[in-house]
Specification:
- This protein has 17 helices and 7 strands.
- The chain is an alpha/beta fold and 429 residues long.
- Strands 5-4-3-6-7 form a 5-stranded mixed sheet, sandwiched between helices.
- α7 packs parallel to α8 and α9 packs antiparallel against α12.
- Belongs to the transposase mutator family.
- This is Mutator family transposase.
- InterPro entries: Transposase_mutator.
Length: 429
């Protein structure tokens, strides 16, 4: 029997405003005029700059009319107590370069323009462009050179830093926002960045991604550590997540850090801690000669693909009998990690594929690493967090920390609910 799902219109709120349409004949006429007069479309003195100047000045003149209550030359404005008082020229930086705009003035100085506010030297598009370039890994010097070369716009490094600093309030709000009470899976990992604190040193930045009860992946936060990655620091991070509303996590997936299961148990006593299989394999190969990697991988595969924990133990016994004499360190590695390795073997295939690796968070960390590579080091902790936050929001046009690559969760959520006695549904808001 096939279920039929009837599509119903979704309540999406008021319809968006229609886009502003430009008459094609007018556009062609302007382009032809630029060609005949030898004008460029972009750059200083280009036609787009002239059009931008015209549009801004017309809009400012309309603002002045609304402020005074009468049109230019209208007798209604005589003896009204206030009147137009010429203009002052102001240069603003736009996405197409600097544009000199004549801003109208009034006699008593009460006119406050909205489109180009007092002391405003940049239109919004420039600020968005600067933030986007910084998020992609460009330094302030590189952004400055890019704006000068492409747009003919001179913007100081201090101005660029000021623009990006404007996101700090939003970042702090995002880092302290309330979270869902229950997550099906939480992935945790850390990346290393260079921060100058007296002297340049490697510092960990902790990252956590949660799978919500609605099946979406959500970046839960970014935290700067003080030294090497350790279970103590992770316990502080997890405690903060609990304080922000996370009362239960079904499965926490990590890279096998020593002491982390005990740290997790202090915060969420019934949470299952799962070691990432990929990390376990990588660590195994570090103890072996490269020429033995293919054979080791082949012999380990039956262990982590076993249908049950008992079968995995049998396969590991066979593996140990083959390799213990040559690589006893690999055997000890797996024995020490066994308690955190086997939990995923209790579940069906759809859950196993979700929780056996930290690939979900490794993908995000790879973007972070590409972005910080060109920076060398950051002057302080806040600068590093700000840069990573900009990288995150550049993947997400909503600015809520949900990146484009975070697609709908593919594993059926009812599989988690069945495996965990409905704890996931109990946490739905």
């Amino acid at each position: 029997m096939t279920d039929t799902i009837e599509d119903t219109p979704a309540d999406t709120g008021p319809a968006p405003a229609p886009p502003v349409m430009v008459d094609e004949a007018l556009a062609e006429s302007l382009i032809e005029r630029a060609r005949v007069e030898g004008l460029s479309l972009t750059g200083p003195g280009g036609m787009l700059a002239g059009l931008t100047k015209m549009v801004l000045e017309k809009a400012l003149a309309a603002e002045m009319t609304a402020h005074l209550g009468y049109e230019p030359g209208d007798p209604a404005g005589r003896n009204g107590g206030n009147s137009r008082n010429g203009t002052r020229t102001k240069t603003v930086v736009t996405e197409i370069g600097p544009v000199a705009v004549d801003v109208p003035r009034d006699r008593d100085g009460s006119f406050t323009p909205q489109l180009v506010a007092k002391r405003q030297r940049r239109l919004g598009g420039v600020e968005e462009l600067v933030v986007s370039l910084v998020a992609k890994g460009l330094t302030t010097g590189e952004v400055q050179a890019h704006l000068a070369e492409v747009y003919g716009t001179e913007v100081s490094r201090q101005t660029i830093s000021t623009i990006t600093d404007s996101v700090i309030a939003g970042m702090e709000e995002w880092r302290n926002r309330p979270l869902d009470p229950v997550y099906a899976v939480v992935f945790i990992d850390a990346i290393v960045v260079k921060i100058r604190d007296g002297q340049v040193a490697n510092r960990p930045v902790y990252v956590a991604i949660g799978v919500t009860a609605d099946g979406e992946r959500d970046v839960l936060g970014l935290w700067a550590g003080t030294g090497g990655e350790g279970a103590k620091h992770w316990q502080q991070v997890l405690t903060e997540l609990k304080n922000r509303g996370v009362t239960d996590v079904l499965i926490l997936v990590c890279d096998g850090l020593t002491g982390l299961p005990d740290a997790v148990a202090q915060v969420w006593p019934v949470t299952i801690v799962q070691t990432c299989i990929v990390h376990l394999l990588r660590n195994s190969f570090r103890y072996a000669s490269k020429k033995d990697w293919p054979a080791l991988a082949k012999d380990l595969k039956p262990v982590y693909t076993a249908p049950t924990e008992a079968a995995a133990l049998d396969r590991f016994t066979d593996f140990a009998a083959t390799w213990e004499k040559k690589y006893p360190a690999i055997i000890r590695l797996w024995e020490n990690a066994w308690a955190e390795f086997v939990p995923f073997l209790r579940f069906d295939a759809e859950i196993r594929t979700v929780i056996c690796t930290t690939n979900a968070i490794e993908s995000l960390n790879a973007r972070f690493r590409r972005s910080v590579k060109a920076r060398g080091h950051f002057p302080n902790e806040q600068a590093a967090l700000k840069h990573l936050y900009l990288t995150l929001t550049s993947l997400d046009p909503t600015g809520r920390g949900r990146a484009k690559w975070m697609i709908r969760w593919k594993a059926p959520l009812n599989a988690f609910d069945l495996a965990f006695d409905g704890r996931l549904s109990a946490g739905r808001k």
